[in-house]
Fold this protein.
Amino acid sequence: DLQLSDRVQQIKPSPTLAVTNRAAELKAAGKDIIGLGAGEPDFDTPDHIKQAAIKAIESGFTKYTAVDGTPGLKKAIIEKLKNDNNLSYEANQILVSCGGKQSFFNLALAYINKGDEVVIPAPYWVSYPDMVIIAEGVPVCIETDESTRFKITPEQLEAAITDKTRLVVLNSPSNPSGVAYTKEELQALGAVLRKYPNVLIATDDMYEYIWWADFAFENIVTACPDLYDRTIVLNGVSKAYSMTGWRIGYAAGPAKLIGAMKKVQSQSTSNPTSISQVAAEAALNGGRDCVLPMVKAFKERHDYLIAALNTIPGFSCIEGDGAFYAYPSVKEAMKTAGIESDVEFAEKLLLEAGVALVPGSAFGTPGYMRLSFATSMDVLKDAVARIKKVLS
Ligand code: PLP
C-alpha cells in the first residue's frame, strides 16, 4: 500500500473547492443545481487588463521573470500601497506570488517552526489552518459569532496568545462573514499586540476593494503605524479586479521575512506567470474605477440577499461591510429539520433544493452557511425561493 506523508494526511482538501466540484458533478449528471459555493466574482476581467496581457504575449514577454516579480509590477504595488493605504515600502519588501494563496503559503513555510502557534479568528478563510499545519504549526482558533459581528475582541485575543504564539492572522473584510474591522477596533487589538513584541501580524486585505461600509477601510498597520515592522500585508488582484484565474497575489512587509518567503518561492514555483504580471500591473496602474460597477452590483445583491435570507424560517443573517458572501446562522432551521451537522444540512439543501452552499464548519464555526453572491440577482432569487420551499 502506498504510504503518504504524515503532513498530507493531516490536511483536508479545500472544502469550498469541494462544494464547487460536487455541484459541477451533479450538474453534469443532469441535475438542476445553483452553485453559490464559489469564491470568485462572476464578472469578466476588465478589457484594458486583458489587452495588456495580449500585448505582452505578442511582444514576447513570455519568459522567466525575477522570482519576486517584475520591477514594473512591484512599482505598481508600491504605489498602490502608498496611494490607498499611505504605507511605504521599498522593492525588497515586496514579493509577488501565484495568488494570495501562495503568498500565505510562503509566509507559513518561511516563518513557522514546528509547534509554533498561529492565532486564527473563526470563521476563517478555509486555507489558513491547513497551511499552518503543512508548516507544522498549530492553529489556535478564536471562535466568534454574530453578537460581535464575527469580530474578535481584545479580551479574546489576549486570552489566545501564549508564549508559543508567533503569528496572528487578521482578514478584513472577511471571507466568509463579509464584516470588516473599524479603525477603533483595530487600535484596540493593536493595544494587545503591542504587549507581545515577538508576535507577527498578517493582515489579509484580499477584499479591500469590495467594500460598502460607511467607514473607511483600515488594516492593523494603517490603524497602528508603530506595528509596521511586525506586520505583513497580503493582498492581490484576484477578487478586486475579477482576476482569479490569472493567479497574482502579493505580500509587503519586513525585508528579512520577504527575502525568506522569496527563497521558498524560488524553490517551488519561481516567478508568477510573466503575462499575468503584466496584466496585474495594468490593473493596479489603471486604478479602481473599473471595479466600481462590480462593487455596486455586489452591494445591490447583498442588500437583496440579506433581507431575503432573513425571511427564510430558521435563518438569520447580519449585514456585511464588503466581500461577496452572506453568512447566515441556520441553527434554528437545523433544529426544525432535526439535523445536527451543518454538513448534512448543506447536503440536504444541495439534493432537495438544488442549491450548493458551504457549511460553516468548513470555516471553523458550525451552524452557519456561506452563500456567495457573486452571481446574478435572478439566480439569487431562485436560490432563496428553492430553499424556502424545502424548509417550509
Ligand atoms: N485570502 C482570502 C481571504 C481569500 O478568500 C482568498 C481566496 O479565496 C485568498 C486569500 C486567495 O486568493 P487567490 O489565491 O485566488 O489570489
Summary: The chain has a mean pLDDT of 96.
